[in-house]
Amino acid sequence: MVKIEGYEFPEDYYFHKDHMWVKMENGKARVGYNAWAADVAGKLVSIKTRPAGREVKEGKTLGSIESGKWVGSLKMPITGNVLEINPVLGDKPSAINDDPYGNGWVALVDPSDIQKDLSGLIKGSEKEKLEKWLKEEITKAGV
Amino acid sequence: MEKWRLIDLDRAPPIVAQTFYEAVAESVHRGLSPNTLILVQPDSPYACIGYHQSLEKEIDLDFVEKEGLPVIRRSQGGGATYLDSNQIFYQIVAKNSLVLPRNVDKLFEKLLSVTVAGYRKLGVQAEFKPLNDVVVGERKISGNGAGLHETATILVGNFIIDLDYELMARVLKVPDEKFRDKMAKSMEQWVSTIKKEIGFSPDPKSIKDAYTDAFEKIMGVKLEYGEPTTEEYRIFEEETKLRHTSKEWLYMESPKKNLGRAVKIAHDVKIIESDHKAGKLIRVRAEMQRDKILDVNITGDFFVIPKEAVSELEERLKGIRLDERALLGVIEDYYSKYKPDSPGVTPKDLVDSLMKIKKHL
User: Fold this and answer.
1) Which of A26, A49, B18, B98 is the most buried (most CB within 10 A)?
2) What is the value of ipTM here, to two decimals?
3) Pick the CATH number of B2-250 from 3.40.50.2000, 2.40.10.10, 3.40.50.620, 3.30.930.10
4) How large is the angle between the packed helices B204-219 and B104-121, nearest 10 degrees?
5) How many beta-carbon pairs under 8 angstroms link A with B?
6) Model confidence pLDDT, tens digit, residues B315-350
7) B101 — contact with chain A (CB < 8 Å)?
8) Is the dihedral of CA B17, B23, B28, B33 positive or negative?
């Protein structure tokens, strides 16, 4: 596990610029929201996602999240067919805050061209690259 | 110093007042427009629901149809509300601004400090209440919501000049009229207005001046008057307006399950109704401040002898927090002193029914 600015980033996960992660599991991809983004969003109280069975392209909206009075988007980190949405999140969206890389996963995806998509992501083991990107994001996050 | 555009849309129809900023956000996201503050006053009344809410569960559709009130689903969070020309909206849309935090709590704290300063210039002793409220004493005096539109950050909120509490309670869907009465009274107690606080309604210009002055000082930016661009008008007409007036958008399915009814009145005050099926159905309706019972009404398909005994229990529960042991203590003490006969309902059932309220807090 890599720790950057106090936030954990598992080494075997891949990270997308829109703050989603990808973990490969036997050819399928599990995706979720990273620990930093979940923290800056605040405790999530609601989530709405596209239903399973749809193809969603990389960068397109997989769903929306709400923390109190703030609404943000979950962007698909890879292109693929959504096989399953985490059933835990319906009752407890804050599982994303509590356990972003485990119990708080968002969707299981059958990827369309995983090699191409993964090449555009940052792997957790690439600490320097990840650190540079996150610091830029934190700077963008402002004062 | 960053330069931001200031657009004053003056009075505008509800669809413009509530959604035009989304067209601006799209244009800001595409890099076609500068960071912008919009000020606008709705020219007529309407009902508005939060992005993740269910239209049919939140709004009394028969009433709004009869009254000809439009309903708009905003793209920001929060709850259902009634809005009219007694409010002035501020809508902040920005991208890559160094003065705007991405951290949501900090975003609210910074931008609501502008709202607080604006209110204070008007003579209203407003304060920021974490995480995202502006209050006078403990009374809410501004509604706010935020979100991200692609790469553009949005925060919208209002100055409440005056409020029609009855109509506000009327547009919301409630289980029955008693719930509505309770809600209206609670709103009068917990939601304030500029008129209530200073005794008169200031003219819109003085409110806008107070806000923009505070905005420049606190945010450290220079506001320059501008107009919407042709592209923003095009996005509004061809994308934003079409989306917001479509049935698919308005009737969008809500992710929240129907587990009773909860209406947020102010920052930490809610009216909640919850059913619990033990041997009998126990219906609890409570006015809650965080986890503290302010007022409670217990009904259902059970009976208690003597019937006045329920009122005594309701009275004893006021001020008690939703803690199983505390509730059981109060209820068992009540049973030992009053010895009410409540066939099919035990003290534990009453505790369980009250604890169900917690799901809505």
Assistant:
1) B18
2) 0.83
3) 3.30.930.10
4) 130
5) 81
6) 999 999 999 999 999 999 999 988 888 888 899 999
7) yes
8) negative
